[in-house]
Design a protein that fits this description.
heterodimer, A: 295 residues, 72% helix, 3% strand, B: mainly alpha, 16 helices, 76% helix, 1% strand
């Protein structure tokens, strides 16, 4: 029983962090119908920014997350405005290819600059563990989980309560109508991409806080973002949070009770099953189901 | 036969004769490079059938490659089959697999289909990795080629001819599809699936058949690749990069044409071979930059630019 609770709590904490990574991915997918295969590379860029700040000035990774988020916001905005906006109306495999090329450049670039060695950002508190009943919870993971949930709530509030957020959502629902209302679609798309990159980068700093990272991890983060976005219903932000928690727990259970590396197959089995049985996601209907495709 | 058909047949005969005689004029290393080019011509053409003609971006195509390769290795190692028996049986088995997964998955559209197939490919890799008693797991499996078992390795020239045959087969099948009623049905699905259904195309049957044919060709190539490599590993045979390379080749050349994938496969394979030899450390980085530039500059493919639209029109076509 204790091992079950231990695995479940680990899965929930890991799931919250994965959700923070996936929410931006889901948002980009929902608003502009683009799957950003370089999303996982953004996570690692954030991790390396926080690592460098920690190595140079001893900056705590929780503050490093803020810095990484700011830098990655600018990077995401620039990439969208200069590259992805150029082919945003093309058949889907073109945007997939473009972002895949970007992922190759970023991951190989990081491997050249930082080497492929595994790194982590060491803090005095990350491996301190808090006993809750019989379960021991590492405080670093608990902190990262709290930040991830907070970031999600702030993002949803921003999207639903501010003019800018509503403009982004409107652009996602019907781009032509939004343009007629005076919304600058290029800017709205770039803002969306910037927000997604900022969340990914900040989450990357937290990844460095709770564990190790290396450039080839990028593909895994992208794939998990896929799975979570589909689980949550694409573009549905609270859905992505739920999807992240579900995936984290399912993976933790699989790691606990299945032999070998079957745990890796679990995420994909869940993905394919959900797509076939319930393509609008666990949380009911996807937010953008009623969207009007721009031509 | 009409005059143009005779001209095409003559031209094709000259190309085939030239390709068969080519290895005698090359060094061993060059033969291997050309063999790899031929392999990717076959793979790109296979992806073109489902991705180019039908417009379903199959991001799990490497699953069929890996299944073909592993079916051949398992049949030769555990059942003592010869390669020539294992090759067609692997392709048929993979075709059956593609039909089975195609029925539920081809109901999904757009990104959902792309990701579901990617999930299938990644999942198959894990299945193969975890069935160690059958597939050797992560340590790989070795195809018997010596000691009276299996089939003797074909040698560089032998594999050249094998992959030349497979490339010719893939191009032939794509040509037949492009000119058939079935092929027009696939293009109609690509343009507007609901309209195609309304116009009397049995879309489910056409899509599943397209995926099945595409999978069978891909499995043939995977089977031949496993025999050529002798020892195969799940990481390599189910490498998502192989899928992406197929797609890049088709997109560079021009999706939904017969000539496009050939142009794309030959061009990209020679460029990446050149980069590998001259920039061994950074060649993947450069390859990524090449992909980005190609997507931005030739969004409708090289053959598309040469065909209908001007270069600038093509670049501006998909802009926001």
């Amino acid at each position: 029983m204790t091992s079950f609770l231990q695995a479940t709590s680990y899965g929930l904490l890991q799931g919250g962090l994965l959700a923070m990574i996936a929410i931006g991915f889901s948002l980009v997918w929902g608003v502009m119908n683009v799957i950003n295969l370089s999303h996982g590379a953004y996570v690692l860029l954030g991790a390396y920014i926080a690592w460098e700040l920690h190595a140079a000035w001893g900056l705590d990774p929780l503050l490093g997350a803020v810095a990484a988020g700011l830098v990655m916001f600018g990077a995401g905005y620039a990439v969208q405005r200069s590259l992805i906006n150029q082919v945003v109306n093309a058949p889907i495999f073109l945007t997939l290819l473009l972002t895949f090329g970007l992922q190759l450049v970023l991951v190989q670039g990081m491997a050249v600059v930082f080497s492929a060695d595994y790194r982590s950002i060491a803090t005095w508190y990350a491996s301190e563990s808090l006993p809750i009943g019989d379960v021991r919870v590492p405080s670093g993971r608990l902190l990262a989980f709290g930040v991830a949930i907070l970031a999600t709530v702030v993002l949803v509030t921003f999207m639903r309560r501010t003019r800018t957020g509503l403009a982004i959502l409107a652009t996602g629902m019907d781009r032509n109508a939004a343009r007629l209302m005076g919304i600058n679609a290029r800017h709205a798309y770039a803002l969306t991409a910037g927000i997604a990159a900022a969340l990914a980068g900040a989450a990357g700093a937290l990844v460095g806080l709770v564990g190790t990272f290396s450039p080839p991890d990028a593909a895994r983060f992208t794939l998990l973002s896929f799975v979570i976005s589909v689980l949550g219903g694409l573009g549905n932000m609270y859905g992505a949070l739920l999807g992240g928690l579900v995936l984290g727990v399912v993976q933790a259970w699989a790691g606990q009770y299945l032999p070998g590396t079957w745990v890796n197959a679990v995420a994909f089995a869940v993905l394919v099953a959900v797509l076939i049985v319930r393509p609008s996601g666990l949380a009911g209907r996807a937010f953008y189901e009623a969207r009007v495709e721009a031509t | 036969m009409s005059r143009s058909a005779v001209a095409w047949a003559l031209g094709a005969a000259v190309v085939v004769a030239g390709m068969v005689l080519l290895p005698s004029q090359l060094y061993t290393g060059q033969v291997r490079v050309v063999t790899a080019v031929l392999m990717f011509v076959a793979l790109a053409q296979a992806w073109n059938i489902i991705g180019g003609f039908t417009g379903y971006a199959c991001f799990g195509q490497v699953a069929f490659f890996g299944i073909g390769g592993y079916a051949t290795a398992v049949l030769m190692e555990h059942a003592n089959w010869s390669f020539w028996a294992a090759l067609p049986v692997s392709a048929l088995g993979c075709a059956a697999f593609a039909t089975l997964i195609g029925l539920p998955l081809l109901r999904l559209r757009g990104h959902y289909f792309a990701i579901a197939t990617l999930g299938v490919a990644e999942g198959m890799r894990e299945v193969v990795t975890n069935l160690g008693w059958l597939t050797g797991g992560g340590a790989g499996i070795t195809v018997p080629t010596v000691g009276g078992r299996g089939t003797a390795w074909l040698g560089n020239d032998g594999f050249y001819l094998l992959f030349l045959t497979l490339a010719g087969l893939a191009v032939g099948v794509a040509t037949l599809i492009a000119r058939s009623r079935f092929g027009y049905g696939l293009r109609a699905i690509n343009q507007d699936e609901d309209a195609a259904a309304a116009a009397g195309v049995n879309t489910t049957r056409a899509k599943v058949l397209a995926l099945t044919i595409s999978a069978a060709i891909t499995a043939l190539v995977g089977s031949a690749y496993a025999f050529q490599q002798v020892t195969i590993y799940p990481q390599r045979l189910f490498d998502v990069d192989i899928t992406v390379i197929m797609i890049v080749m088709v997109v560079i050349g021009g999706a939904g044409t017969v000539l496009g994938p050939i142009v794309g496969a030959v061009g990209l394979q020679f460029v990446s071979e050149y980069l590998r030899q001259h920039y061994p450390q950074e060649h993947i980085l450069v390859l990524g930059a090449v992909i980005i530039l190609v997507v931005l500059l030739f969004p409708s493919g090289l053959t598309g630019v040469a065909g209908r639209t001007g270069l600038l029109d093509a670049i501006w076509a998909y802009r926001l």
